[in-house]
Amino acid sequence: MATQGPIHDPELVDPMIDPRTGEYAVIAPGHNFKSVTQKIAGIVLTANTPWAWVGGLFLAATVATGVIIAVTWLVLKGVGIWGVTIPGAWGFAIINFVWWIGIGHAGTLISAILLLFKQQWRNSINRFAEAMTIFAVCCAGMFPLLHVGRPWLGYWLLPYPNTMNVWPQFRSPLAWDVFAVSTYATISVVFWYIGMIPDFGTLRDRAKLPIAKYFYGLLSLGWRGSTRHWIRYESASLLLAGLSTPLVLSVHTTISFDFAVAAMAGWHTTIFPPYFVAGAVYSGFAMVLTLAIPIRKFYHLEDLVTLRHLDNMAKVMLTTGLIVAYGYGMEVFMAWYSASHWEFFMMWNRMFGPMGWAYWILILTNIAIPLTTLWSRKLRVNVGYLFFLSFVVNIGMWFERFVIVVTSLYRDYLPSSWGTYRATKWDYMLFIGTWGMFTFLFLLFARLAPMIPMSEIKMMLPQTKIRPGGADAEVVTQEAL
Amino acid sequence: MPPREGVYGLLAEFNTPSELVHATEMAHRAGYRRMECYTPYPVEEAAEALRFHKTGVPLMCLMGGIMGLITGYGMEVWVNVWGYPLNIAGRPLFSWPAFVIPGYEWTILFAGLSAAFGMIAQNGLPQLYHPLFNAPNFRDGATTDKFFLCLEAHDPKFSPTDTRAFLETFSPISVVEVDH
Questions:
Q1: pLDDT value at residue A85
Q2: Sign of CA dihedral B31, B33, B38, B39
Q3: Any domain includes A246
Q4: Is position B50 within any domain?
């Protein structure tokens, strides 16, 4: 009867679906070297700044002034203006630090780990994911520095010869953190910049304004696309990817040691490092979706950041979300299996104590909503739903850190020292201010630097196929069109 | 040191990477050695045609990594055993497992910086001026969608007329003489 189902009707078949694999195409068909260059460079080199961009930048700057005000007041008055006190000595500062740096991890995962696994689809999203990493690390790095109380003496954390003859104490995870986070920030910036050099060369050659030619010329270091340069460049990129992969795993592992090394119920577990890393990637991919979905819509990049990308990112979120869910399950199991009174009480207090609501928000937003719906391909390619979900997961991951930091601390071993934790308006102002700062930096990046790596997109086009003899080159051009 | 005046070389422009690789391979077989391809993205086949395989970047990266490990770990040991010995909960002064993480981070830091800056240095960058930028068609295509082969004038086989005729046989879009 119904031999001609809708899927067989050529009119109704989605042109983005590859008929051979049934998967969405990584890049929409019909692109060539020129069109890719024009599309991506055009966003940067156009003389017309979109009004929506100006409005967004203004709004972000307004929110970011919260950082300036909150930090100024903090420097004048001291950390007493925050809600941190005994027993809850680690409040928003540490929660936000772990949350922001976790977000950054997806950028490195996309740019390094997926490069090593030869996942070519990453090429469309790696540049702005790396930018996201750097801006997230900027926001993250601020919190521990301010939390030390006298940020202007922050350089005391570093090992340097001084007249006091005092040196850091390397048996403390807090000293490890200084090394891990500073290395991570440095290598991320270098990897990002190295990746942009050829694209800055393209911008230099296509810019019309003298000032743009001048600055992109300086930034490109005189890149001219020489083959010997390219081979060394590829070699360095691969090495940086190979180095960033263990780096990104070690950074969140070190951060989890800040907790796991302390003899605190709920912190002192061996599952922390893998569970922190998975959580970091989970929230990071959510943030990539939060950024990618409006950007592809606003700049009409649906050809380059396709549904395939969104689908794959949702799959990574599903995987890492399940690892996180396993971590939560194991925490509850170990609270019972360890037969430790303190562990058992901590878990009971976490779920049903005065701050139990935070735990259930976490379960709802990190487990119940995403991990039940991401199995559906229909929902994984539903752009609106993914956008909504990316916020849900980021809220959930923030609450995860809140639950870990606060619920272990505010009711510890000695009931007479129990207290509570309440963030002040300065805590909120600084935290919300960092969202503005992050958005502000990201909008500047979107306007001034190539958001998508042009040279890497070109490598994925069918025109790159080499025909021996070179004579039937016409055929290649024809086929591609 | 090649002369800094006169002709730098002859630059042939192609539409596709296949034509470029073919022309490069043929130029190599004809005995040209001082030549270079310019492409908007890495074309590994062009490097093979140029017989360019080994780069010094991995070695630099390894040296950097070893240097970072020795510097980082050595510094920790010196600081905590000799420079500023502290008794932390009765742990030994030389707590080697605790020193692993900062040593590991500095290994990665030094290796990564060596790979990145080593690559830039080996490429001779930054070099903001290059004779090829004088060619009228080079900047329009080399970083966008065209593929260039430059046979350089200091190759012993180079001759302004014969080399031009040789390049013309591959039917390029154009062959341009580039001045220093």
A1: 85
A2: positive
A3: yes
A4: no
* Residue B62 shares a structural domain with residue B102: yes
Inform me whether the pLDDT recorded for A72 exceeds 90: yes
Q: d(Cα B29, Cα B20) in Å, to the nearest integer?
A: 14
Helix (H, G, I), strand (E, B) or coil at B1: coil
Inspect the interface and report whether the beta carbons of A239 and B125 lie closer than 8 Å.
no
Same structural domain for residues B75 and B111? yes
The number of folded domains in chain A is 1
Is residue B125 in a domain?
Answer: no
Lookup: tokens for A145: 């520095």
Residue A364: pLDDT above 70? yes
Work out the angle at residue B78's Cα, subtended by the Cα atoms of residues B73 and B83, and round it to the nearest 5 degrees. 145
- Report if residue A335 sits inside a domain: yes
Q: Which of A82, A16, A136 is nearest to A383 (CA)?
A: A16
**How close A57 comes to chain B (CA, Å)?**
30
Cβ within 8 Å, pair B16-A202: no
Residue with tokens 């019972």: A336
By C-alpha distance, which of A101, A151, A441, A127 is closest to A253?
A: A101
Regarding whether B71 and B103 lie in a shared domain, the answer is yes
pLDDT value at position B3?
55
CATH number for B39: 3.30.70
Lowest mean pLDDT among A72-81, A299-308, A325-334, B56-65: A299-308
Inform me whether the C-beta atom of residue A150 falls under 8 Å from chain B C-beta atoms: no
Q: Which domain holds residue B174?
A: 7-43+147-179
ipTM reported for the complex surpasses 0.95: no
B119 to A233: CB separation less than 8 angstroms, yes or no? yes
Rounded to two decimals, the pTM is: 0.89
Which residues 170-209 in chain A show a CB within 8 A of chain B? 170-172, 175-176, 179-180, 183, 186-187, 190-191, 194, 198, 201-202, 204-206
Q: Is residue B127 part of a domain?
A: no
Number of domains in chain B: 2
For residue A109, being part of any structural domain is answered with yes
Chain B: nearest CA to A408, how far in angstroms? 23
We report the CATH number of the domain holding residue A268 as 1.20.1630.10
pLDDT tens digits for range A180-209: 999 999 999 999 999 999 999 999 988 888
Task: Provide the token pair at B149.
Answer: 């082969």
For A407-443, write each residue's pLDDT tens digit: 888 888 888 888 888 889 999 999 999 999 999 999 9
Q: What is the least distance, in Å, from the CA of A93 to any CA of chain B?
A: 23
Say if the Cβ atoms of B22 and A468 lie within 8 Å.
Answer: yes
Tell me, yes or no, whether B130 lies in a domain.
no
Residue A228: domain span: 30-480
* A470–B contact, CB cutoff 8 A: yes
| Residue count (chain B) | 180
Query: Considering only CB atoms, which chain A residues are within 8 Å of B13?
Result: none
